[in-house]
Write a structure and sequence with these properties.
By secondary structure, this protein is mostly beta strands. Among the domains are: about 130 residues, Immunoglobulin-like (Sandwich), CATH 2.60.40; about 80 residues, Immunoglobulin-like (Sandwich). It is about 5% helix and about 45% strand. The longest helix has 22 residues.
């Protein structure tokens, strides 16, 4: 009898595994043959299976084998914890998660045996409770995961468990390592780039944040509120941090917003902008309480605030914590190290030139830190990360006199560091940047950005005096070419814009370039250099390209500056000028660039010729008797151009049949009526398609 029971269990287990394997995209759930995940249905199957049993996911392995771009709306672990191993294989899942009543993340609960690794998440996550890119309740292991999604909790302080995190919302005893957040994280009681609420006994190591972080009460670039009896080590923030509590409460910090329990906070870097809205704001931690260790941290971020602000600690409410060897850039942070005062050996500010190169080597050592000429120190384990390269790139404000320039009081021209491919930009017309040199063109406030691609850190500057550098004398020519076309149905057609300089050029940027074209003949869809925005004016479409990188040019060498890709259209015209309307370089020029317009021309004509086109109505196919009863389909076809036409009927499975062909001549009929027998078509829904020389027009009809 026992043998029969055992055999039945084996058979049931085999059938269950076989059935699930058939439903997933492959695999059997073992480490050597994980379940293969490739679409939304596979994700939904994981969610349903986890909810079916508390132990279903334990020891099961999953592997993402392709990006899932079509907005996954399924959450996993909202009934039982996920305790399996999910390997994203460095592929991306795009999510669209929204709820007014429930926590929202791709995984609601990750159990003590749960593992997420090598996964990228993009999209949108919104909840009136807690929200996170990856996990709400975390007790497992997260490694090498990246969040690009925007995460928002609209709870706005309705409870300390309603939090928002780029990776994790509410940590239990989980750990996160080698992970990054690039998305904006907003709302909730606590908000953090990696974790919102730290929990107990957790760890965060080798993590990076570049996203904008704003919580209701406490916000941190890495952690909103610190981990009790835990560790935050070897992490970097370059994102802007603030909190929205305006009643004098709350805290924000470059690494941690607020901490109460024992915590080791060591070997971390902040260079993000901090904006004080609550009671405390600190380069490393806003409000420090309880036991623990705070050592070997480094902050170069600017802080906008008044009292309760510090380059390392905003407010220190603890007499029991070990604080040692923390440093900040006093030209970027205008306040002392702790509670507005420097403390020797614990939290000290230095000039930028005193922090770069190997000046801190004797203090921070060589085990964890790396040093290079003219750059801030960085963490060895993270020095090849883009965020790290941006973090270690200084702006060298003037420090020749004892009365040195600071972020809120810039009076002399200065330079920036261009190593590691970092590009510098500014938001307004106060500054003028030419390669590594920055001149002061106007009085007022400007924002300086150090960026690689779309990852950047932010430095606000207030200019109090004027200082102009020698202007650039390079002469540029920007040209659009001519495009004779015979096919007005071209898709993904390329329109290049060329650039030439009369001398060698390297590292130049164009802030904005405006190109006009008639939208009846060409519709732009994307560009391969910079950012594109569209503006419509009557029949003209204006394409504005921003942050365009100028290629390296030899003297009088012409290269493609950017390529516009779009669709050629059959409109009411047969040609259009490609007009370069305006250009603004990042650097100051001695004279305006020469702009040469181009043309795009189609071989169509409204007066006769190769392709005759009328424009007094729109082409369409009309079903006169819909639904069709009696076996005869009555159609009217309106045509606008000369050439060969055909009609085809397509069923819902995609099977098609050509039912009529006809020709439109230059001076013949333009509107055609047809009666088409369809007695051989069964009852159901169909499409009738009119194929013209340049396009397809269709409508649906029903056979009863």
């Amino acid at each position: 009898m026992q043998q029969k029971i055992f055999l039945s269990i084996l058979i049931f287990t085999f059938l269950t595994v076989t059935n699930l394997s058939a439903q997933f995209s492959g695999g059997n759930g073992t480490q050597l043959s994980p379940y293969l995940i490739s679409n939304k249905n596979d994700m939904a199957l994981i969610a349903d299976s986890v909810n079916s049993s508390a132990n279903w996911s334990r020891n099961k392995h999953f592997k993402l084998i392709s990006d899932i771009p079509d907005s996954v709306k399924t959450v996993i672990g909202n009934k039982y914890d996920f305790n399996g191993v999910f390997d994203g294989d460095n592929k991306k899942i795009t999510v669209s998660l929204n709820s007014t009543t429930s926590d929202m993340a791709l995984f609601i609960a990750l159990g003590a045996d749960g593992v997420l690794k090598n996964l990228i998440i993009d999209g949108v996550v919104t909840s009136n409770r807690s929200a996170a890119g990856f996990v709400i309740r975390h007790n497992g292991f997260i490694e090498n995961c990246v969040n690009f999604s925007s995460v928002t909790s609209t709870a706005n302080g309705s409870g300390t468990t309603n939090n928002s995190g780029g990776i994790v919302a509410n940590n239990g005893r989980g750990s996160v390592s080698h992970s990054k957040n690039h998305g904006s994280v907003q709302g909730g009681w606590y908000s953090g780039g990696i974790m919102a609420s730290g929990g107990d006994d957790g760890t965060v190591k080798f993590c990076l944040n570049a996203g904008f972080i704003s919580g209701f009460r406490c916000s941190g670039g890495i952690n909103g509120t610190g981990i009790n009896r835990g560790e935050i080590l070897f992490s970097i923030n370059i994102g802007t941090i603030t909190n929205v509590k305006g009643d004098g409460l709350g805290a924000s910090g470059g690494i941690v917003g607020w901490k109460s329990g024992p915590l080791i906070l060591s070997n971390n870097i902040n260079c993000g902008l901090l904006i004080k809205e609550g009671a405390a704001c600190g380069g490393i931690i806003g409000n420090l309480q309880g036991l623990g260790t705070l050592s070997d941290n480094f902050s170069t971020g600017a802080i906008i605030g008044d009292n309760g602000v510090g380059g390392i600690i905003g407010i220190n409410n603890s007499n029991s914590i070990t604080i040692s060897n923390n440093f900040y850039d006093k030209q970027m942070c205008l306040y002392g190290g702790i509670n507005g005062k420097d403390e020797a050996g614990r939290a000290e500010g230095f000039l930028t030139k005193e922090l770069i190169g190997d000046n801190l080597q004797s203090k921070l050592g060589n085990i964890n830190w790396s040093y290079s000429n003219n750059l801030y120190p960085t963490l060895k384990a993270l020095e090849n990360e883009i965020i790290s390269k941006i973090a270690r790139s200084p702006a060298y404000l003037d420090d020749i006199n004892a009365d040195f320039d600071r972020q809120n009081n810039v009076r002399d021209c200065f330079t920036v560091n261009l190593e590691n491919g970092v590009q510098w930009r500014n938001a307004f017309d106060i500054l003028q940047i030419k390669n590594e040199n920055v001149s002061l063109e106007n009085l007022g406030e400007d924002t300086l950005y150090a960026a690689i691609s779309d990852v950047r850190k932010t430095i606000p500057l207030t200019v109090k005096d004027l200082c102009q550098l020698i202007t650039n004398t390079t002469k540029y020519t920007i040209r659009a070419s001519k495009h004779p076309l015979t096919d007005p149905t071209r898709r993904n057609y390329r329109v290049p814009i060329f650039i030439k300089a009369d001398e060698y050029v390297s590292g130049s940027m164009i802030d904005s370039l405006v190109v006009e074209i008639d939208r009846r003949i060409f519709y732009p869809k994307r560009v391969d250099n910079g950012d594109m925005s569209l503006h419509f004016e009557d029949t003209v479409i204006k394409m504005t390209f921003e942050n365009v990188t100028v290629p390296e040019l030899k003297a009088n060498e012409e290269k493609v500056l950017l390529t516009i890709r779009g669709d050629v259209l059959l409109g009411e015209i047969d040609s259009s000028e490609i007009k370069i309307d305006a250009v603004k370089f990042a650097e100051q020029l001695s004279e305006k660039p020469e702009l040469i317009h181009g043309f795009i021309t189609l071989d169509i004509c409204a007066e006769g010729g190769g392709r005759l086109v009328w424009f007094d109505y729109s082409p369409e196919v009309i079903v006169k008797n819909n639904p069709v009863i009696g076996g005869i389909l009555e159609l009217q076809c309106k045509t606008i151009e000369r050439g060969s036409y055909s009609l085809e009927i397509v069923d819902m499975l995609g099977k098609s049949e050509t039912v009529r062909e006809f020709t439109v001549s230059a001076n013949g009929k333009r509107i055609f009526d047809f009666e088409i027998p369809i007695s051989n078509f069964s009852s159901g829904a169909y499409f009738i398609i009119m194929n013209t020389p340049t396009a397809k027009y269709s409508t649906k009809f029903v056979v009863q």
